[in-house]
Amino acid sequence: MGLPSPTRGDDHRRGLFLTAIGAVLFTFDVPLIRLAASDKWTLMFARGLLLFLAMTVLWMVFQRGWRGSVSYISGVGGIIAAVSSTLANLMFLAAVTETTAANLVFIIALNPVICAFLAWMILKERVAWQTWLAILMALLGVAIIVWSGQSVGTTTGDLLALGVATCMAITLTAARWSGKNIMTSLAIGALASACIAAFWAEPATLPPVSWGWLAINALVIVPVAMALLAIGPRYLPAPEVAMFFLLELILTPLWMWFIFGESPTREAFIGGTIIFLTLLCHSVWRLATGGRTRPLRTETATP
């Protein structure tokens, strides 16, 4: 007697497990970068180089399972994704050193609403009024965070984080427009950012313990999380996936408080709460409508 075939319920549980693990792993990204404790250029160089190696290995592994030859550059869409990914990498590492982790993850969470706007503007997709409302509410939350940064000196980092969210949205929109896999574009973006940072980086001054934290981040945490988040959502509706991405808004500030004693300002907490509740309510609405409307995009294009 053969083994019973997996049921829809089994697939759903598998998707929940894989997506949850991937989302939780991503919450350690910023804390590990902070633990490396170096200047932004050296961090960009070391992390970019390690990420390029890890994602290239992932591409080679996945290529074995694909029929035919898979090109490393996925046409015009892949080039656009690579350029925007390069900019996202550079701004992300700069933002990590210029603002609080809470501000960073709250603002980057704006990524899906920017995706929705770009889908309307470039891909000519219809956007429901509920999504427009979510866009406006999320922008309000970001405005509060950036405004509060003027009093605590995080405005530059907050604007860089907004740039990261925008570049990530461009990367994902390019992927949807081209219909191609963008993993290699992310790898090229990591390498390009490392090459740019190399002009100012001082990797020889990076102590072994810092290399260790960056290796855990770039060779283990980020690529494993990306792989899980590429597989898990195949078994889940988009609104459920979006809810898992909200974990970063809760857990990353928690890890930063636990490890470094860093906590968000009152205004940043208010703005972050607005963004969190907006995305949560949008996901619940999507579940209630049975996924009949366009979701806020939740794929990952992690810098």
Provide the fold topology:
Layout: H1 8-26, H2 29-36, H3 40-63, H4 75-98, H5 101-108, H6 111-121, H7 129-152, H8 155-178, H9 183-197, H10 208-231, H11 238-245, H12 247-260, H13 266-288
Helix pairs in contact: 1-10, 1-11, 2-10, 3-4, 3-9, 3-10, 4-8, 4-9, 5-8, 5-12, 5-13, 6-7, 6-8, 7-8, 7-13, 11-13
Major sheet: none
Number of helices: 13
The number of distinct β-strands equals 0
Helix/strand-derived category reads mainly alpha
> Fraction of residues in helices?
over 70%
Note poorly predicted spans. Answer: none
Distance between the termini: 48 Å
Percentage of β-strand residues = under 5%
What string, H for helix and E for strand, traces the elements in order? HHHHHHHHHHHHH
- The total tally of domains equals 1
Question: Which of globular, elongated, flat, extended, rod-shaped describes the shape?
Answer: globular
- What is the subunit arrangement here? single chain
Give the averaged pLDDT, no decimals.
86
Plain-language structure description:
- The protein contains 13 helices and no strands.
- The protein has helices spanning 8-26, 29-36, 40-63, 75-98, 101-108, 111-121, 129-152, 155-178, 183-197, 208-231, 238-245, 247-260, 266-288.
In short:
With 303 residues, this protein is mainly α. It has helices spanning 8-26, 29-36, 40-63, 75-98, 101-108, 111-121, 129-152, 155-178, 183-197, 208-231, 238-245, 247-260, 266-288. The protein has one domain (20-288).
Question: What labels would you give this structure?
Answer:
single chain; 303 residues; mainly alpha; 75% helix; 0% strand
